[in-house]
């Protein structure tokens, strides 16, 4: 109860909780499309691939302004996505290999850049650790503004192009036959996911970003067959886990926000897989038992 | 041995050890499992540390390998419910296990030297300082671990050659013939885990992914034969390792990062220049086919009008532009190529087919 009160009074806690909720909402919504389009792991690859972009942005500007670093991250992650798409289209390399390779090679190149950066007198570690695991506790109001400025247009985009994205996710061939620019729409969706990743890097970091995209969507999918309900649920799960994670990390010693948020999401996903009506494991067990009973 | 030489030797051996299981990951479309495994071994190390109480215990190795295999089992458990797809299952399972590891470390092992980023990033340059003595030989620990991993992988692949081939290319047939694809799958995953754990000391767990996937992917563009692919993967991995070492040496940057970058460069070269399958070869082939097709069209056109009253009018280069809708320069080039190839002859303004040209036209019309 005290924690909940602190949410109203404690500036740091409120900022962290708001940031995590914002991230959970945006990545929950966009993750739905990623999962439905069978690109669940693209987010993982892109978040790792953002490292060289961050290093390069820091190198060129010499600033640690979050906005500058975010732009660098976005460009690098976007390039990685294009590369993955290009490799699978132009050769017989399958998607999984293209993903894993791009992820690791971009990350390796990022390490090269960072190690070169460290020799500069003004450098002082461009915050590799922050980037790997996020540092939600260090969020300030300005970061929230940046996150909102990036996230709001992304969500607006989804609501404006709702019909197109829906068709693209469920039946891309039909969408193409209607004359929709499926290539451009797919690219736009990927770009929006990149934005979600850029928002998340500061809060939960590279490694955990894939869960922020996949878990809310996978959990929401179990409760409904309607896309609109699924997207809203995923946003709610993401935001709820964000707030819960922030509260847990504020009360428990040595629990940082990123891992706490991810574990909350994992718990939500597990509950959904087991208990969801119609689809859940308990439900299908009960149904098969009833079938057997009626057969006898 | 000088430290520089030792570092290169370790790099080559680790790269070779990674490339071998990587070949099967690429062929079986499971490359992203290497991503999951290389992250979750951290949890295995932490749990084993809590049990053993020291960082030097061999239990840490066992725990890390076991956690890699458990990760795969969990991914299959979640994916096996049919409620989420396998790739989504990977995306849920490994961040969860990794989160548990991060929390456990910061809560209970904060005062021990169990650094998360050193597991994720590794640093090859320091490998020669950590030494062990074996049979009177003073060796870097990473060299010993790498060599043992490589030997295990070589032995397993040599032993299970037929089974791996069959289950990789035709799992259905393998099951029908009584091989156990499941057992072999977990055998392979154990191999991947052992390799990832053995290698991340030297290069860090994220770069292990590059060494496991990029060289085999490059080799996959160069050959269709499994033994050749294994050999090429090892070769490409080793060369990337050495190139990475020297690049890092000259530019004074991270060795592991440079090695991973070089595996990417190697793949890029294969993608561009692979004979037959590369992008350059593909573009050249399409260009050649375009001219060949145009010459066939020309021959067919001439055959249609051969000997007819309108021949003198139809069979001129000018007419081709109207009839086949070719641009003037394109038509001229096609005629020039056809003349050079002995398909047509020019008699004044009129083109006639040679015997060879007639044959080409007939063959084309039969297609």
Topology:
The complex is a heterodimer of chains A (296) and B (367).
Chain A lengths: L1 H8 L1 H26 L5 H8 L1 H11 L4 H25 L4 H23 L10 H6 L7 H20 L1 H9 L1 H6 L4 H22 L5 H15 L3 H25 L5 H19 L5 H15 L1
Helix pairs in contact in A: 1-2, 2-8, 2-11, 2-12, 2-13, 3-5, 3-6, 3-12, 4-5, 4-6, 5-6, 5-11, 8-11, 12-13, 12-14, 13-14
Chain B lengths: L2 H25 L3 H22 L6 H22 L5 H23 L7 H6 L9 E4 L2 E4 H19 L1 H9 L1 H6 L4 H23 L1 H16 L5 H26 L3 H19 L5 H27 L5 H4 L2 H7 L4 H13 L3 E4 L2 E4 L1 H12 L1
Antiparallel strand pairs in B: 1-2, 3-4
Could you please describe the fold and organization of this structure?
The complex is a heterodimer of chains A (296) and B (367). In chain A, α12 (209-223) packs across α13. Chain A has one domain: ABC transporter involved in vitamin B12 uptake, BtuC. The relative contact order of chain A is 0.17. With 296 residues, chain A is mostly helical. Chain A is 80% helix and 0% strand. Chain A has 15 helices and no strands. Chain B has 367 residues and is mostly helical. Chain B has two domains: 3-277, ABC transporter involved in vitamin B12 uptake, BtuC; 280-366, Arc Repressor Mutant, subunit A (Orthogonal Bundle), CATH 1.10.10.10. Chain B is 76% helix and 4% strand. Chain B has 17 helices and four strands. Chain B has helices at residues 3-27, 31-52, 59-80, 86-108, 116-121, 141-159, 161-169, 171-176, 181-203, 205-220, 226-251, 255-273, 279-305, 311-314, 317-323, 328-340, 355-366; strands at 131-134, 137-140, 344-347, 350-353. In chain B, a hairpin with a 2-residue loop joins β1 and β2. The longest helix of chain B is centred in the last third of the chain and has 27 residues, at 279-305. The mean pLDDT of chain B is 86. The chains are: A mainly alpha (296), B mainly alpha (367).
């Amino acid at each position: 109860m005290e924690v909940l009160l602190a949410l109203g009074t404690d500036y740091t806690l409120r900022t962290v909780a708001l940031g995590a909720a914002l991230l959970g909402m945006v990545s929950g919504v966009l993750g739905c499309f990623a999962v439905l389009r069978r690109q669940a792991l693209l987010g993982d690859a892109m978040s790792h691939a953002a490292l060289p972009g961050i290093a390069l942005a820091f190198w060129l500007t010499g600033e640690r302004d979050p906005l500058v670093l975010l732009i660098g991250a976005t460009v690098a992650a976007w390039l990685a996505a294009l590369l993955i798409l290009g490799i699978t289209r132009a050769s017989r390399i399958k998607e999984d290999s293209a993903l894993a390779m791009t992820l690791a090679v971009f990350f390796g190149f990022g390490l090269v850049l960072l190690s070169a950066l460290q020799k500069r007198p003004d450098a002082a570690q461009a915050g590799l650790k922050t980037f790997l695991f996020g540092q939600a506790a260090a969020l300030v109001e300005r970061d929230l503004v940046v996150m909102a400025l990036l996230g709001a247009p992304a969500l607006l985009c989804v609501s404006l192009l709702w019909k197109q994205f829906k068709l693209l996710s469920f039946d891309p061939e039909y969408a193409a036959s209607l004359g929709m620019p499926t290539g451009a729409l797919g690219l736009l969706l990927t770009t929006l996911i990149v934005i979600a990743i850029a928002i998340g890097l500061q809060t939960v970091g590279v490694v955990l970003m894939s869960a922020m995209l996949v878990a809310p969507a996978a959990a929401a999918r179990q409760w409904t067959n309607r896309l609109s309900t699924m997207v809203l649920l995923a946003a709610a799960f993401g935001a709820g886990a964000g707030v819960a994670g922030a509260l847990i990390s504020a009360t428990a010693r040595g629990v940082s926000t990123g891992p706490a948020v991810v574990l909350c999401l994992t718990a939500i996903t597990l509950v959904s897989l087991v208990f969801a009506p119609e689809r859940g494991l308990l439900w299908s067990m009960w149904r098969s038992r009833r079938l057997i009973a009626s057969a006898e | 041995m000088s430290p520089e030489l030792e570092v290169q030797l370790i790099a080559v051996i680790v790269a070779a050890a990674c490339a071998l299981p990587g070949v099967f990951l690429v062929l079986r479309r499971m490359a992203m499992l290497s991503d999951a495994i290389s992250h979750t071994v951290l949890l295995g190390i932490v749990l084993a540390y809590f049990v053993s109480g020291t960082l030097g215990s061999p239990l840490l190795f066992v725990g890390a390998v076991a956690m890699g295999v458990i990760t795969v089992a969990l991914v299959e458990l979640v994916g096996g419910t049919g409620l989420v797809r396998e790739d989504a299952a990977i995306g849920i399972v490994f961040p969860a296990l990794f989160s548990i590891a991060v929390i456990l470390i910061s809560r209970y092992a904060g005062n021990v030297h169990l650094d998360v980023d050193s597991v994720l990033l590794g640093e090859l340059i320091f490998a020669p300082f950590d030494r062990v003595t074996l049979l009177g030989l003073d060796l870097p620990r990473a060299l010993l671990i790498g060599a043992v991993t490589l030997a295990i992988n070589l032995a397993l692949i040599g032993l299970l050659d037929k089974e791996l081939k069959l289950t990789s290319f035709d799992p259905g047939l393998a099951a029908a013939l009584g091989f156990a694809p499941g057992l072999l799958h977990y055998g392979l995953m154990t191999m991947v885990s052992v390799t990832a754990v053995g290698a991340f000391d030297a290069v860090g767990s994220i770069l292990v992914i590059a060494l496991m996937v990029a060289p085999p992917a490059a080799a996959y563009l160069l050959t269709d034969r499994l033994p050749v692919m294994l050999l090429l993967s090892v070769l490409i991995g080793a060369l990337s390792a050495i190139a990475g070492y020297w690049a890092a040496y000259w530019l004074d940057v991270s060795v592991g990062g440079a090695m991973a970058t070089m595996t990417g460069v190697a793949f890029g070269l294969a993608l561009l220049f692979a004979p037959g399958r590369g992008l350059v070869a593909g573009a050249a082939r399409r260009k050649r086919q375009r001219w060949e097709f145009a010459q066939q069209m020309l021959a067919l056109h001439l055959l249609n009008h051969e000997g007819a009253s309108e021949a003198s009018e139809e069979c001129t280069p000018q007419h081709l532009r109207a009839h086949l809708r070719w641009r003037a320069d394109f038509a001229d080039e096609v005629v020039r190529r056809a003349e050079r190839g002995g398909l047509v002859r020019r008699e004044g303004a009129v083109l006639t087919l040679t015997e060879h040209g007639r044959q080409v036209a007939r063959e084309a019309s039969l297609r």
